[in-house]
């Protein structure tokens, strides 16, 4: 697609990485500043009219709201004030699959700070996207070309 790509894991503060390396799941307090920083990156790219893909485990609805609206999204249902930046238009791609498939892929990663043991906590935290969120769900049981085609079709359909 020629879009700019960011891996959200590259933007975790050192404290978050250390916590995960020790097998300690992140909580909202750990994740919110990280998500706000990611929102700022997405806002900057949007302002530059640069289409962007962000690989990110935005596990909760609140996390996805922060990616769209920044820190102000934390205050639920806070109306936008005149002159504020409007919310970003983001298509969330929920990669859905059985825990064993995801575990197999995590086991193959080398040099990553998140150990396989944290996968269970991620499933416990997960709030799959639901309407009215702007999302598609893609099965990880499909082949990589099928997954990419489904995502690209959704993007091109707007």
From TrEMBL:
Q: Give the catalytic activity.
A: D-gluconate + ATP = 6-phospho-D-gluconate + ADP + H(+)
Q: Which InterPro entries match?
A: P-loop_NTPase, Therm_gnt_kin
- Which residue ranges traverse the bilayer? none
Note whether ATP-binding occurs among the keywords. yes
List GO terms (cellular component aspect). cytoplasm
Entry's SUPFAM superfamilies?
P-loop containing nucleoside triphosphate hydrolases
Could you tell me the Gene Ontology terms of the biological process aspect for this record? Answer: carbohydrate metabolic process
Which molecular function GO terms apply here? Answer: ATP binding; gluconokinase activity
Taxonomically, the superkingdom here is Eukaryota
Keywords linked to the UniProt accession: ATP-binding, Kinase, Nucleotide-binding, Transferase
Query: Which pathway is it part of?
Result: Carbohydrate acid metabolism; D-gluconate degradation
Q: What is this protein called?
A: Gluconokinase
Task: Write down the species.
Answer: Vidua chalybeata (Village indigobird)
């Amino acid at each position: 697609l020629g879009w700019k790509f960011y891996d959200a894991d590259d933007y975790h503060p050192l404290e978050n990485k250390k916590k995960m390396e020790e097998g300690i799941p992140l909580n909202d307090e750990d994740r919110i500043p990280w998500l706000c920083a990611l929102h700022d990156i997405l806002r900057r790219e949007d302002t530059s009219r640069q289409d962007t893909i962000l690989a990110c485990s935005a596990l909760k609805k609140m996390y996805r709201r922060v990616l769209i609206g920044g820190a102000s999204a934390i205050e639920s249902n806070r109306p936008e004030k005149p002159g504020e930046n409007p919310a970003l238009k983001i298509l969330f791609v929920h990669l859905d699959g059985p825990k064993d498939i995801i575990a197999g892929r995590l086991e193959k990663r080398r040099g990553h700070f998140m150990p396989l043991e944290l996968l269970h906590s991620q499933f416990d935290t997960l709030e799959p996207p639901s309407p009215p969120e702007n999302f598609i769900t893609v099965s990880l049981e499909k082949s990589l070309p099928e997954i990419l085609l489904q995502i690209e079709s959704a993007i091109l359909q707007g």
